[in-house]
Design a protein that fits this description.
The chain is an alpha/beta fold and 403 residues long. The strands form four sheets. A seven-stranded mixed beta sheet has the order 4-12-11-10-7-5-6, sandwiched between helices. Strands 1-2-3-15 form a four-stranded mixed beta sheet. A four-stranded antiparallel beta sheet has the order 13-14-17-16, covered by helices on one side. The protein is globular and about 60 Å long. Helix 2 runs antiparallel to helix 8, helix 3 runs parallel beside helix 8 and helix 9 runs parallel beside helix 11. The longest helix is centred in the first third of the chain and has 20 residues. The chain binds pyridoxal-5'-phosphate. The site of pyridoxal-5'-phosphate has 14 residues, from helix 4.
Length: 403
């Protein structure tokens, strides 16, 4: 028998080593601030990867969660769940969507979107279309279908055979897009800002072309709002910047303020495609999760979080452009609202580590981009503090970083 001493992984952890973790254990959070187990304080400009859009432990959401914990945690989706209806209404009242399917994560929301697109064409339209077109550098999740939809080889390694029916094209390549469409194409799936891919905003003209093409050819437009949604880019949903209405869109991350929940939204004839028994999830839309969603949507609206993200984002980008001007390591500063990328001339891992030493948490987006994802209600003082720390780090970083 194996002794306890030998169990687990090399560092003595009982977890799968699926993350290269930073040497910090965070134990408390409030607003834009986090504390570690040694009492060190950090200004959080990564927001749990675009999750804590209202900051850590936002009062309205916490109150709704605590109240619900006293009443009811879980019932099967075989029953009516009033909180789920109310949360769905909060989302449909604030978008063009007419129906919501709740699940537990971003990957599950995209999985539901892919399934809905296929089933709509096959069962409602009866045309047998199933192919989904996605883009190079995209990220859509880590289930088998969503990692297949993802336009990055590294997430697919060792997981074959992958599901059929996905085609990839370079972003902004209209010719490649036209060539990829066949009589089997069901949908085009895209992020308005490729987040994990390096904070790459899609050109408005390309988005317009895509929306027009989808209408003309009877294809569904699926927008992955998992990282860009819930006010992050300066609008409640990032497609609002482009004046378009996707057939399907997906949410997670900021939807639950830190509580795990995802959603897939659609309208019209699409709703008929998911009949009773065609799709489901034991934990999708529990009374607790949907109390949190309703409170989160209401707080985002009442706090004017999208408007604040737009204003703060403009200020933050302006400050970064001014303070980092002429720094040879900085190539570009891009993004929308409070999803901002500092594009660098080399690997940025040491900038992330240096930030942690100086009390600022930021994250990469690909190897060469420092990504900033603060709370949408971050204060000017907190932004100034973050810019000051970043300026000092970049000042010490005059040559391409050595890893
Ligand atoms: C754009 C996008 N889609 C999908 C996902 C997957 O979400 P989850 O990790 O909740 O499954 C992510 C996660 O980073 C994402 O950024």
């Amino acid at each position: 028998m194996m002794s306890d001493m030998n169990k687990g992984t090399e560092g003595g952890s009982s977890l799968f080593p699926t993350y290269a973790r930073y040497p910090i254990s965070l134990v408390k959070g409030e607003g834009s601030w986090l504390w570690d187990d040694k009492g060190n304080k950090y200004l959080d400009f990564m927001g749990g990867l675009a999750v804590t859009n209202l900051g850590h432990a936002p009062k309205q959401v916490k109150d709704a969660l605590v109240k619900q914990l006293d009443e009811l945690w879980h019932v099967s989706n075989l029953f009516h769940i009033p909180n789920q209806e109310a949360a769905a209404k909060a989302l449909t009242d604030n978008s063009h969507a007419e129906a919501v399917f709740f699940c537990n994560s971003g990957a599950e929301a995209n999985e539901a979107a892919i399934k809905l697109a296929r089933r709509y064409h096959q069962k409602v339209k009866g045309n047998g279309r199933y192919e989904i077109i996605t883009f190079a550098q995209s990220f859509h999740g880590r289930t088998l279908a969503t990692l297949t939809a993802t336009g990055q080889e590294k997430v697919k390694e060792g997981f074959g055979p992958l599901p059929e029916g996905f085609r990839y094209i370079p972003l902004h390549d209209i010719e490649a897009l036209e060539a990829a469409i066949t009589d089997k194409t069901a949908a085009i799936m895209i992020e308005m800002i490729q987040a994990e891919g390096g904070v790459i905003p899609v050109e408005p003209a390309f988005v317009q072309h895509l929306a027009k093409l989808c209408k003309e050819r009877g294809l569904l437009l699926i927008i992955d709002e998992i990282q860009t949604g819930m006010g992050r880019t300066g609008k409640l949903f990032s497609f609002e910047h482009y004046g378009i209405e996707p057939d399907i869109f997906t949410l997670a991350k900021g939807l639950g303020s830190g509580f795990p929940v995802g959603a897939m939204l659609a309208k019209g004839e699409l709703i008929e495609a998911f009949t009773a028994g065609s799709h489901g999830s034991t934990f999708g839309g529990t009374p607790i999760a949907t109390a949190v969603v309703k409170a989160t949507v209401e707080a985002i609206i009442s706090e004017k979080a999208p408007e604040r993200a737009a204003e703060s984002g403009e200020y933050l980008v302006g400050q970064l452009r001014e303070k980092l001007a002429g720094n040879p390591f900085v190539k570009d500063i891009r993004g929308k609202g409070l999803m901002i990328g500092i594009v660098c001339n080399g690997p940025v891992a040491n900038i992330i580590a240096e930030g942690q030493k100086r009390g600022l948490l930021v994250v990469t987006a690909g190897p060469d981009v420092v990504r900033l994802l603060p709370s949408l209600i971050v204060s000017r003082e907190e932004i100034d503090q973050a810019v000051s720390i970043l300026t000092s780090i970049f000042a010490d970083q005059t040559a391409p970083a050595q890893l």
